[in-house]
Write a structure and sequence with these properties.
Blueprint: H1 7-18, H2 25-37, H3 41-61, E1 84-86, H4 95-103, E2 107-112, H5 117-132, E3 138-145, H6 149-157, H7 166-169, H8 184-192, E4 197-201, H9 204-211, H10 216-221, H11 230-243, H12 250-276, E5 282-287, E6 307-314, E7 340-344, H13 352-368
Parallel strand pairs: 2-5, 2-6, 3-4, 3-5, 6-7
Antiparallel strand pairs: 1-7
Helix pairs in contact: 1-3, 2-3, 9-12, 11-12
């Protein structure tokens, strides 16, 4: 799926280049006005036209395209669906304001529930809006491992990269990720606009070594030697315990938590790599847990780097308070897990605990046979 560019975007790109050394909009206007005052009348016309175009472009950016309609049906009649709320105050945030915040941010994290197609449609929508506003972010995927970079780069270097090949090249679905078709629009936009695409996940072998404490150099390089602050550490362990339906032995939770933190820190490192390689910003496609501002990938970003976490949140019947949802549960005072909550319908899924029970039962049977 491609997203055609409009003339406004080309104008914004030209103006951005023309005034790249002028730091603030009001300074731009003042400098431009001073230049106009000193110009002969005939030479003023292009400059005045440029100012009018700049104003028109800003107005166009305040009127975003309509987001895609949800395909999910469960609890779709919850009034929260399709609306955006501030993760700190619970106040509703207009669409234009939410997108403007994303445009003005260096790192935007789009936190999905992996198996919800509506979340992926909204990720592509937001990326498209950022591009239409003149942005050129690097695109970082949790679903791509660091040891797949060479494969990704080789695919990208072909004369006509075929997005359909990536599912097999990256073993996308074979490694347990949802349907690759849901992510294709993001790759299409990246190709269309020549966006950098970076892996955001450490290789499996590295994750296992870190979890076992067998890779001290990487643990140190990722900033994992020091534990999380106690409340955040407890919350992470509780989250992992609940997500595994209480079936994981207690002594295994700390290694799993370290592996989770390694994934967060790897995403942050990918951002630093992208910005070092002259990307102007970054968009991270990841699960909502990794997108948390308090202990997710933003925890490992350099201080002063602006970031915005958007959690796509499934609405439930009868739950009308945005701040009552797990994605909004505050662990550390004055630090909501996500900056924005964007509500969608939920999808019908099998009981994950039943699947885990079968998984662990299979392991126990296998162990008893040896």
């Amino acid at each position: 799926m491609s997203r055609p560019l409009n003339a406004i975007k080309y104008g914004q790109t030209f103006l951005k280049f023309q005034y790249s050394n002028i730091p603030r909009l009001h300074d731009r206007s003042r400098i431009k006005e001073e230049r106009i005052d000193k110009m002969p009348l005939l030479k003023r016309v292009p400059a005045i036209a440029a100012l009018v175009f700049l104003i028109a472009s800003a107005q166009a950016r305040s009127a975003p395209q309509t987001p895609p309609l949800p395909v999910g049906q469960l609890d779709a009649d919850n009034p929260l669906v399709g609306r955006i709320f501030d993760g700190r105050t619970g106040a509703e945030v207009p669409l234009a304001e939410a997108l403007d915040r994303a445009r003005r941010t260096e790192v935007v994290l789009l936190g999905e529930r992996h198996d919800n197609p509506d979340h992926h449609a909204l990720q592509a929508y937001i990326l498209g809006e950022l591009l239409d506003a003149g942005g050129h972010p690097a695109l970082i995927f949790e679903m791509i491992d660091g040891d797949q970079k060479e494969t990704l780069d080789s695919w990208r270097a072909t004369p006509t990269p075929d997005i359909g090949e990536l599912n097999d090249l990256l073993s996308w679905e074979r490694r347990g990720w949802p349907s690759f078709s849901w992510y294709e629009p993001l790759f299409a936009l990246a190709l269309e606009q020549s966006l950098p695409i970076l892996p955001g996940n450490p290789p499996d072998a590295q994750v296992h070594a870190i979890a076992r404490g067998q890779d001290p150099d990487t643990i140190a390089a990722l900033g994992l030697e020091a534990p999380l602050p106690a409340p955040l550490d407890s919350n992470l362990l509780e989250t992992l315990r609940d997500s595994h339906c209480g079936m994981v032995p207690e002594q295994a939770l700390a290694p799993i938590a370290l592996a989770q933190r390694a994934k967060d820190a790897t995403m942050a490192r990918a951002v630093i790599t992208a910005l070092t390689e002259r990307a102007e910003s970054a968009v991270i496609i990841t699960g909502s847990e990794h997108a948390r501002t308090d202990r997710g990938a933003p925890f490992y970003l350099p201080v002063g780097l602006s970031h915005l976490s958007i959690a796509f949140t499934e609405a439930f019947v009868g739950e009308m308070d945005p701040l009552s949802y797990g994605e909004a549960k505050v662990v550390t005072e004055n630090m909501p897990p996500h900056d924005l909550l964007w509500f969608t319908p939920r999808i019908d899924r099998d009981d994950p605990c039943a699947g885990l029970a079968e998984h662990f039962q299979g392991h126990e049977n296998g162990a008893s046979e040896h």
